[in-house]
Amino acid sequence: MPEDNPIHVMDEADVRREIARLAREIVERNGGTGHLVLMGIHRRGTQIAALLRDAIEQAEGVRVASGSIDITLYRDDLGTIGPRPVIGESELPPEGIDDMCVVLVDDVAYTGRTVRAAMNELSDWGRPRRILFCVLVDRGGRELPIQPDFTGREVEVGEGQRVEVRVTELDGRLAVELVRTEPEVA
Amino acid sequence: MTTTAPTLGKDLVGLEHLSAGQLRTILDTAEPFKEISERRIKKVPVLRGKTIVNLFFEASTRTRISFEFAEKRLSADTVNISTAGSSVSKGETLVDTARNLEAMRIDMVVMRHGSSGAAQFLADRIPSNVINAGDGRHEHPTQGLLDLLTIRDRMGRIEGLKVAIVGDILHSRVARSNIYGLLTLGAEVAVCGPPTLMPPAATELGVQVFTRVEEAIEWADVLNVLRLQLERMEAGYVPSLREYNRIWGVSNARLDAAGRDLLILHPGPMNRGVEIDSDVADGPNSVILNQVTNGVAVRMAVLYLLAGGQPEKAEAAKQGGET
Known about the structure:
The complex is a heterodimer.
Chain A: E1 7-10, H1 12-30, E2 36-41, H2 44-60, E3 65-69, H3 78-81, E4 101-109, H4 113-125, E5 130-138, E6 150-154, E7 161-166, H5 168-171, E8 175-180
Parallel strand pairs in A: 2-3, 2-4, 4-5, 5-6
Antiparallel strand pairs in A: 1-8, 7-8
Chain B: H1 20-36, E1 51-56, H2 62-73, E2 77-82, H3 94-103, E3 108-113, H4 118-123, E4 129-135, H5 141-155, E5 162-166, H6 173-184, E6 188-192, E7 208-210, H7 213-219, E8 222-225, H8 230-234, H9 241-248, H10 252-258, E9 263-265, H11 278-281, H12 288-307, H13 312-319
Parallel strand pairs in B: 1-2, 1-3, 3-4, 5-6, 5-8, 6-7, 8-9
């Protein structure tokens, strides 16, 4: 992929620092780790949720429940951009989400449509006591009245740029970068 | 996600002309759909607002209900039309029926018809997506796909497996869809049945022909046992059901002689004690009910893949950097 000179926004140490801070804030807001569920949004939200879970475990000594959610079938754009043949599986924590405090975790907050879809999917699965929204990077550009409750860092994205969160499991490194979007040949 | 999976086009008429990549796309897409049927609320909104007509010119319970569950679990609106009590019984032609439905602004037609080629005929004449739910002796593609999925689930692969299809090959659209799909995905296929129920040029399909069921069992890893349609007996293809069972019936005694486990499939409805014995149908190697469960998932996958608008736009959207 022609990612000529990605601009570094956060390196691994930066990301880990933000994760530790976000983990603290989540526990604080929830008043402890009771009834807490971290739900990562497929794909990179899942990795960020796993990092948060580790951070909470380190600080509190408790491994909170977690799961993942794939919102493909809840998108509002099937008619315009067509089916995505690769649908990830959604995974609920064994305890379920009824009466839990569910934190939806994603890598980037942008239009807000993804988290809208994720909330719809969650409400088909059960009735959480509360849903909170946590992102590592907020790039602005919301198309819906939805804001994150916990934000790692706000990043300004210029014309022809895209913010990419790199995670170890999928990309071999943990970082946040700005890349150019134009010359990508599929 | 940088992989661009092959698309299916407008219709699903048969498996004959699908590539291995297209078949795999459908099977892989079916996997996550299995989980939806296990949820408390068995419904996702992906086909909200789509109207689907189930047009059944032949009797069907399993296939029609399976399609209807698949459609409803994807939130589509569905209408069922069967020949009895519809204007079809008043002599309306197939195209006129379909055009009238089109005039009511439908999006997809799922059709079963007694004539081979009916699905293609319809697909060529209306802009809606057409899914073949069985046409004459031609194909029954979603049955073929659910058989492929069930085999892959249990055996972990399809390539290199030996699959024997036993029974009435001559009249069987299930056999044809199975043969095309299995061969494309790299399995070896054999057919086995009475000479009166065997197409004269079966080997031209690229399959082996066994005349004795014992030989097929000896050879195969997977046995797909077809239903003996009772009207065949009346038409003189087999002398009696009892004789059919004695010579062609799949029994534990015959399976034990192979000395290893064979996976047992049957598209249903079963004639217990005719083509398959009860202790085989209910035995540990039978995946007959898994086939039914997988049928819903595979049909959801087909509906989802056909209903999507223009997949080439997905690439463009990705480059726009939406998350």
